[in-house]
Amino acid sequence: MPWRLLKYGLKSSHNEPRFFPEAKPLKPHYDVVIIGGGGHGMACAYYLAKEHGITNVAVLEQGYIGGGNTGRNTTIVRSNYLTPEGVKFYDTSLKLFEDLSDDFDLNIFYSTRGHFTLAHTDSALRTMRWRAEVNKHHGIESEVVDRDFIAKEVPYMDLDCAGTHPVMGALYHAPGAVARHDAVAWGYARGAYNRGVEIHQKTRVTAIRTQGDKVTGVETDRGFVSCNKVVSMVAGSTPRITSMLGLETPIEIFPLQACVSEPVKPFMDTIVVSGSLHVYVSQSSRGEMVMGASMDPSVLHSTRSSFNFVEGLTDQMIDLFPFMSRMKVMRQWAGMSDITPDFAPIMGKTPIDGFYLDAGWGTWGFKATPVSGKTLAWTLANDRNHELIEPFRLSRFTDFELVGEKGAASVGH
Amino acid sequence: MKVFDCPVIGPRPISEFDYGGEVRRPPMEADAPSWAAYVFNRQGAPGLLREWWYHRPTGRWYVMERDTLKDEVVRFIDLEEVRYDIPA
Questions:
Q1: pTM score, whole prediction
Q2: Fewest Cβ atoms nearer than 10 Å: which of A99, A169, A295, A413?
Q3: What ipTM describes this predicted complex?
């Protein structure tokens, strides 16, 4: 338990200090500029300062800390992916997550729930067996379970799914967890700030200056800063940054929507996902049902919400949880997911010297926050790709070495 | 965007259409890197995007130019404009 929480409970006055003091003017030069002040950008800044002693770093964020996809996901953390590359990567992340509250001395409400991915067809069940075998090979708790097991663990679910898509079994991943996404970004940001990193909110990068094939600095709406290394960690805004450099990538932007119900008493202590029905749901620590579905069908650079989404989602959700028909949707929103053809991220070095990418986070970015920050920090400090992210390099597309990560969320099987 | 105002079949709800992605023309002769670029790379940045849409009830493909920032169809493209000959 974080000691701060205990001290807080015993104190009578609660004058919380500001997490981040007012911004200072930009310096003329930084060793590293991180574009994007979400969880990934803050984690990268944190590990650069903590593990590599690189503190002359600026994080430039066009909005506010954690206001993009970090604050828009459904906060699920798991590592039961399909490919060995994905499994190793996300499991490193999950283990880092487990220690974050202590690292930050800030409660990130990390809550291990157990994660069910339902199978409604033979082919889905076959994919689950495949995933379970890959997972177990890498030492991850993951197994295919039958209807009786599910009925015992999730007794309030209609396993016959109103008779339309009976559940045949599930992939059960005991370490599957949820965490408070804002706290993850703030914890990393405060840790980075305390070690000397500068965080500049409301600072938009408008151009990246290069000389030959080398980065020399970035233009912002607050002036020019020179730097040796730039890393873009902006998820849904990635193509806007790469187009500044004329760098082509396979990334396309699709909105991913989510919603929460009104808060109710805690009853659901697991996470339930159905790839076939395109739904996932968990109950937050405040009692809201946090629900998501599949991506919108066409490219769009917008965070607008649609009625179609709620209509389609609740239609499927009520088949699984009939009693939820009496609950109200309280809030809905969207994030811009940067989707890649193989559902794996694009990370590390690029053809431009000094320009690094942390992108292609699609529907799987939040759970990778710690490991992407850590591996990118290593990559920046050593100027070569960390071994865990080597399979995710941009050049995999020209090498025809795609990853094929069908274990990603919102992907049908 | 909820309705496509199609010049051929009139206004139709968007739910009747399937998305076919960006219209791209393959290089007729290419080395491996430019072939990979054709296969995988996309115009990711916001702006005007030429894309395929399939109208399920009538079984016909259309090409439209859409503003991907505002979600507005700017114009319908005559298929002659995107047609190319497959080398014999």
A1: 0.93
A2: A99
A3: 0.94
